[in-house]
Amino acid sequence: MRRSGADAINVRAYVLWGIVVGIVAGVAEALITAIGSSDYWSRAWLHWCQIGFAGWMFGGVCGYVVAKRVERWRAADGRTLDQADRPRLALLCVVLLVLLWSAIGPRDGFTWLLEVTPVLIGVPLLLATARFRWTNLAYLLIAIHATILCIGGHYTYAEVPLFNWIRDALHQFRNHYDRLGHLVQGFVPAVLTRELLLRRTPLHSGGWLFTLVTCVCLGISAAYELIEWLVAISTGEAADAFLGLQGDAWDTQKDMALALAGAVLAQLLLGRAHNRAIARLNERHPPA
Q1: CA distances in angstroms from 128 to 121, 155, 271, listed in the order given
Q2: What is the pLDDT of residues 6-26, one digit of tens each?
């Protein structure tokens, strides 16, 4: 079926966005890599072309997928893009930009792939299930978590520059960016799990909801640690940066404790705001 003019414009706009991002990323990658490399400029044009082409393809695919999503959202509820979808698409664009940036010259390609895999799975999954609308609070937290994963994948969690500076300024023995990542690993899933249970089960706010959400987040953290273990025994030293132990024998236990703390903090700090966000969403989209 032929797309409407508005949807075609969306595709062209996202393709153009991809080209611009590709060119900018290529120039930035060339400038960064040229530092300390005497022969880089002789082959810089090739990198610009490669990254520009990748950006064009990336933007084209995203443009097509987003245009189809917009078409379905409009058909479902008759609302315009400006009214209904701008926050979601804005956050999607931010996440895709950060993901593209993180893929340009990462410190370790294998570690980058391992760290951003949740983003590579999560973004298509959200697009495929876009008929289920999360609250804007949930989308914002998903975007923040994806950004943290992409930054960690680009630098590796043990070498994020800002946290290296904090480590040196406070005379610490390790980079604590991975601690932030595991805190968020409990914080964000707590809001998502809470929203699913409130909207899709008879549960209401209270002790049982708090307990179940906390247990789910702790289970997610434990599963992630098991995945890290399986990757480590499968790939050996190649997974050292992914594990990010940094000499701490209790790193796994501390990671799970931080995820637990994040789950508890999310419910204590955002519980009321989350309830209001769900109520507003239910007013606009009454449950079936």
Answers
A1: 11, 30, 28
A2: 444 455 555 566 566 655 655
